[in-house]
Structure formats: structure tokens, C-alpha cells
Specification:
heterotrimer, A: alpha+beta, Arc Repressor Mutant, subunit A, 3-stranded antiparallel β-sheet, elongated, B: Arc Repressor Mutant, subunit A
């Protein structure tokens, strides 16, 4: 049994990403005659015309769509207050660089991202995710940034060693490029003598950043 | 031959065993191990004949089956008759199969729910609501993906250093700067707790060297053999 | 004059990009008492329950939202909305194990499935169905996985207690795997995790719904 035309019409208007012109609606609902479609649109409009309805049939340039009624606008704007906010892509990337490269200066982050990050740094600071760790004894004595206690708390990390390692990131986030075999000192192998390598032994100072390949598969059962 | 069509559908050795148990109408708790082993090897051979890559997991299971089979050929030691039930060498395998089967069933349930939810559509139009000011929503996956993206982009620019460094050292660097904010100067030997293990000492020392190299701090020694003091760079 | 509460509620549910938890609705509509809100939700649900309605009140992932009714799906798909592809069988099995056994490590999932799950884990992570819960206090401190709010939304669960169970069978057959209490360092993902842990959800101690016990062998097919 095909669904009620009015229900079908309402669902189409609700689910469509853009307003639906009359001709498109007619094509989507071939079971309705042009007169039938016009009547259904009128009926839907009348149904929403009750004070108990929060929606209305809105006819805009491109066609028909559902929208909230002007009478409830003041309530709808309150949504912004309770809606969770998300970090923008630039903020997310900056935070990631700071988290994994701290202590780091603004200029160093900018060298990686290739853009000015003044605004983003401010946002991250206001969000309580980063903090100033000190100053670097470089010309201009730039400030060094790192993640804050709030950052650790947000993710429930006890300390920075809880951050997923590069190998773990690779295992979790699909690599955008094929894995290459590069000679590499593994990142964080608790218990192994990683410290002995130290900063001086940083691999690939000459070349692009190698990504550690995932370790051998764990016990397969 | 009958297996050919299905071969690639096996999701692992357990899946294959469950299939064999089903088609041969075997009681899962009383597997005739010789028969099932033979069948299992026939499928592996078929896979090889078809040039399908036989994953390591299938070979591990093959070894397990042979092991169980050999265990079952051994007569029980005298006096162990009563314990025979408990020591059935098939038991661990049966437990694994039962466990896996339950999750296969659960996966089937999820597939059904997925299908039902595909009949439900949310609002299609883009959100017109102003950006949220509510609590921050940040997923660790998003953060990781962002970092991966950064690494990927940096690969094209060899002068940019995004190479991974040992993380413990990095962490200790941050700790050192933190402590310097509290007490300055820091006494060198105070950096090393008396009970610190060798690894911790090394990590701390490397962190100190790295901060010196970066110029974020400096050390002073009034005279040879006197205490080494550590200052933040801005106290120069 | 403030708008009719039912109209306001409907407009909020329509406008919100994500399901609105009951507490958020209460904060958005302070003029309604908790009982008033519950009554309004019921009334709205009843209003949509007509065959002439194309919408329904959808309770999912710890909140409420509007969605199209399944009865009109055949018409809505004519819009050619791109839906996410169905999950593969390996992905579903892995997801089931993570859902019922969370928090769980990759190695533990692999032990149950008998195969390596690297690729599947990435897929599930990228589709926002699983999240990192923390690290296990074991040698190597492996990461622990659990399901996300996205998981609840995808399968239409209000919370984890909605996971299907075969309680009556489980009552007869003692599970060979009693619920484990895993010592671990939790990772908070306030936004994502809220639905899973929200006030509506069951206390964390009780964990996810118990796994259906083994049925007869045929059920495994």
C-alpha cells in the first residue's frame, strides 16, 4: 500500500536538502494529479496554521520547504546557547600540533600550518585547552605553548603519555597515503630504551616525516 | 568444489569452522575432531588451488586442530577417567566457537536494526541555527585525524620538522618548564628523585638538554664542583 | 505573549541539528515543568502517529529529534539522498563485540573474532561509531574502545541498555563470561559520550546490556 499523499509530501519537504519546486514535487509524487498536489499543499499549509504548530509551509524562490514559524523564533534562537560548540578545522589542527610538539612557539606552529594562527591561539586559550609554558631564548623571546590541565581533563588523560602515539594514530585513522617502509626509530615503546635516542637522534631530520608502520598484528587468537 | 563459491566469505578460521559444523550437522559441543580437521584442510587446499591468499590465522587454527587431534589420541593416564569430561582437549576451541557464534548472532541483530534505520531520515536542509555556544565538543578521533592531516601536508615540505620525537622526553620538558615557573632557580640534583630509575633519569636529562638547545632555559655554575642551577631563559 | 509550548517544542526539535536530550529541552523551555515537558512530548508523539503524518518523534542517542516515518521511506528515497553504505559483516561483528564487551582492547576483539581487525577498526572510527575510552593498565597500556553516541544514533538506540538481549535464555544458561571489571584510565568525550552516559542512561557500573547467550548452532548462520 502506498503511503498517504499528505504524509509523503510532508516527509519529502522535511528530508529534502533544498526547497522543492512544484514540478519536482509532481515528479516525486506521480500518483498525484497537478490539482491533487495543489490541494495537498494547501491542506498541509492549513494544518500548520494552528497556534500549536511550530512549523509552516514556506514558499521561497526555489520552491516549497518546511520552516519554523516566526512566532517561535525567540525560542529557536535559544538553541545556540545549549548547542555544543565544536572546534574549527584550523583550531583542531593547531591544537593537535601543540599537543604533539609542545613546547612549541607560535612561529613553529605557523611554519607547519602555513598560515597565521593568532585568532586560533586566542580561541584555544579562551577554551582553556592550551597555556603558556615559558619563553624561548630566541630573538624576540617568543612564548612557548603547551596543552593545559584542562586539555588533559577534557580527554581524561592522566598525563601526556596517554595521548595516542603516532603508531596508534596510524592504526586508527586511515592513512591518506600508502604505508612506506622507512627506517625509523619507533615512537614510544614504554620500557624500551627510547630515551637513549634523545632529541639528537631524531630520525629523518633530512627528509619528510616518516610514519611508523603499525606493529605486528597482536595475538590473533 | 561446493566450497568455491563461499570461500571468500569466510571471515576467519572460526567462521569457517562454524560453517563446517553447520553443513555437517555436527553437535558443536561434541565435535568429531578427526572429521572436522580433515574437512578444514580440504578447504585450505581448495583456497590454495584457487590462489586465494590463506591468511596466517587459518594456519594457526590448522595447527590447533592437529594439536587437539593428537591430544585426543593419547589414552588418559590411569585414575584420570573421572576427570575426562573436564579435560576434554576440545573444550577451549568449543568455548571460542560458542563465543564467536553469539557475536555473529548479535552482528545479525545489528544488521537488522541498521536496515530498519535506513528507512528513517532526518531533516535534509542545512542547519540555519547560529554556531553553538554550549559546552565544547571535541572528539579524540577528530584530533587524531587533524594531526594526521598535518603530517601528510608537511611531507611535501621537507624543511618543516614534524618528525615524531620520543614522547616521554617531550612530557618531561613541559614538566621542567612548569617547575621553573614555581621555583627558580632549580637545583640540578633536585631534578632527580633519589628513587628515580635509570630510565627516568635519562629522560629527564635529555629533556633538560633539549630545553637548553632550544634556549628555553639556561644553567649556571658559580664554580667548578658547585651546584648547578637552572633558570628560565627570561631571567637572563 | 510567549508561544504555545507544543509549537515551541516542535520548532526546537525541527531546528536542532542533533537529538535534544530531555535536560536540554527543559533548559530551553523553562516555562514547562518536567511533567509538562513529558506531557508535551507525548502529545507531539501522538499527533504524529496519524497516517496522514510524514514525521515522527524519534527518541535516539539519549535525546529526541524529528524524523520521517518508515512508512514513507519508499517515497523519500526518490529524493536520491546519499545514505551511508551498509556496514560490512566484519565491521558488524567487530562492532557487536565492542558494544557488548566495552571497554575492550583491539587484541581482545581479535581473540574473539580470530582475525586481525586493523582495517575494520579504522572504518568504525572514521564513521564515528566507536571511540577511545582510555588505556588499559596493562603492560603496553593498550587503548580501550567503546561505542559512541554516533553508534546509538546509527542503530536507533536510546542508550546502551537498548542493545538487544536474549534475557530469557541468559537466565537459563549461565554465561561462561561473567561481566569483567576492567581497570582503566577513562577518556572523556563530553559531547560524544553524553548520550551514552547521560542521566537517562543506566549507571556506568551496570555496563552495556548482557550479550545474548549462545543459541542453537543453526542460529549462527
Amino acid at each position: 500500500m502506498s503511503p498517504d499523499p499528505l504524509a509523503a509530501l510532508e516527509a519529502l519537504l522535511f528530508a529534502s536538502p533544498e526547497p522543492l519546486p512544484r514540478e519536482r514535487l509532481a515528479a516525486l509524487l506521480p500518483e498525484l494529479s497537478p490539482e491533487g498536489l495543489a490541494a495537498a499543499l494547501e491542506e498541509l499549509r492549513a494544518r500548520y496554521a494552528s497556534p500549536q504548530s511550530g512549523l509552516m509551509l514556506d514558499e521561497v524562490a526555489g520552491g516549497f520547504r518546511l520552516a519554523t514559524r516566526p512566532e517561535v523564533a525567540e525560542v529557536v534562537v535559544r538553541l545556540a546557547i545549549v548547542r555544543p560548540s565544536r572546534l574549527s578545522r584550523p583550531a583542531l589542527e593547531t591544537l593537535a600540533i601543540i599537543a604533539y610538539r609542545q613546547p612549541i612557539t607560535k612561529a613553529e606552529v605557523e611554519a607547519v600550518r602555513g598560515v597565521n594562527i593568532d585568532g586560533v591561539l586566542k580561541t584555544l586559550g579562551e577554551r582553556g585547552l592550551i597555556r603558556i609554558l615559558g619563553r624561548k631564548r630566541d630573538p624576540g623571546r617568543p612564548m612557548l605553548y603547551g596543552t593545559s590541565a584542562g586539555f588533559l581533563e577534557y580527554f581524561g588523560f592522566r598525563d601526556l603519555s596517554d595521548l595516542p602515539t603516532l603508531a596508534e594514530i596510524e592504526a586508527l585513522v586511515a592513512s591518506p597515503h600508502p604505508r612506506r617502509t622507512v627506517e625509523y626509530d619507533p615512537v614510544e615503546e614504554p620500557g624500551a630504551g627510547e630515551a637513549a635516542r634523545g632529541p639528537g637522534a631524531r630520525p629523518a631530520a633530512s627528509g619528510p616525516a616518516p610514519l611508523p608502520s603499525a606493529g605486528p598484528p597482536e595475538a590473533g587468537g | 568444489m561446493a566450497y568455491q563459491v563461499k570461500l571468500e566469505q569466510f571471515e576467519g578460521p572460526l567462521d569457517l569452522l562454524l560453517h563446517l559444523i553447520r553443513v555437517h550437522e555436527i553437535e558443536i559441543t561434541d565435535i568429531p575432531i578427526a572429521t572436522i580437521t580433515e574437512e578444514y584442510f580440504r578447504v585450505l587446499t581448495a583456497m590454495q588451488e584457487l590462489d586465494l591468499e590463506v591468511a596466517g590465522e587459518f594456519l594457526v587454527m590448522a595447527a590447533t586442530l592437529i594439536y587437539i587431534k593428537s591430544k585426543m589420541l593419547l589414552p588418559p593416564a590411569p585414575g584420570e577417567e573421572a576427570l575426562a569430561e573436564e579435560e576434554d582437549p576440545r573444550r577451549p576451541l568449543v568455548d571460542m566457537l560458542l563465543e564467536y557464534q553469539r557475536f555473529k548472532t548479535a552482528a545479525g541483530d545489528l544488521a537488522g536494526l541498521e536496515e530498519r534505520r535506513r528507512e528513517v531520515f532526518g531533516r535534509g536542509a542545512a542547519v540555519q541555527v547560529p554556531p553553538g555556544r554550549g559546552p565544547l565538543e571535541l572528539s579524540l578521533f577528530d584530533l587524531l585525524a587533524a594531526f594526521q592531516e598535518v603530517l601528510k601536508r608537511a611531507e611535501g615540505r621537507p624543511d618543516v620538522e614534524v618528525t615524531p620525537r620520543p614522547f616521554r622526553v617531550r612530557e618531561r620538558m613541559v614538566e621542567l618548564l612548569d617547575r621553573l615557573a614555581q621555583e627558580r632557580p632549580l637545583r640540578f640534583f633536585a631534578l632527580f628523585a633519589p628513587d628515580a630509575d635509570r630510565r627516568t633519569v635519562i629522560v629527564t636529562f635529555v629533556a633538560l638538554l633539549e630545553l637548553l638547545r632550544q634556549g628555553a632555559l639556561k644553567v649556571r655554575q658559580a664554580a667548578p664542583f658547585e651546584e648547578i642551577l637552572i633558570y628560565p631563559a627570561e631571567d637572563a
